[in-house]
Amino acid sequence: MNLPAAVPMSWYLILSAVVFTIGIIGVLVRRNALVIFMSIELMLNAANLAFVTFSHYLNSLDGQIFVFFVMTVAAAEVAIGLAIIVNVYRLKETVYVDEINLLKG
């Protein structure tokens, strides 16, 4: 039994949409910078799942190449973003975005 063929494409896309929605809700509702970062990662992983799904069902490698680009962007985002959050925490002793007003003039 070929397991990936047994699961319809729509189920993968529905799962991707659910994970992306959870990520959007996390970004819009939560105020903790670390939780917002994790929510962004959820959205990127949901996009990766959709890319891999279309790549598999269309028998094309283009989606998998996009996944490598997205993973590269996600790794860079984590490295730079966490460095910024650590520095802000050292300066302000908080990671809540409502209490951080460093960019206000």
TrEMBL record:
Which InterPro entries does the record match to this protein? NADH_UbQ_OxRdtase_chain4L/K, NUOK/Mnh_C1-like
Transmembrane stretches, start-end: 12-29, 36-58, 64-86
Q: Has UniProt tagged this entry with the keyword Oxidoreductase?
A: yes
The protein's UniProt keywords, in alphabetical order, are: Cell membrane, Membrane, NAD, Oxidoreductase, Quinone, Translocase, Transmembrane, Transmembrane helix, Transport, Ubiquinone
- Pfam families tied to this protein: Oxidored_q2 (PF00420)
Known EC number: 7.1.1.-
Q: Identify which top EC class this enzyme belongs to.
A: translocase
Major localisation: membrane
Q: How does it sit in the membrane?
A: Multi-pass membrane protein
Function (record text): NDH-1 shuttles electrons from NADH, via FMN and iron-sulfur (Fe-S) centers, to quinones in the respiratory chain. The immediate electron acceptor for the enzyme in this species is believed to be ubiquinone. Couples the redox reaction to proton translocation (for every two electrons transferred, four hydrogen ions are translocated across the cytoplasmic membrane), and thus conserves the redox energy in a proton gradient.
Protein name (record): NADH-quinone oxidoreductase subunit K
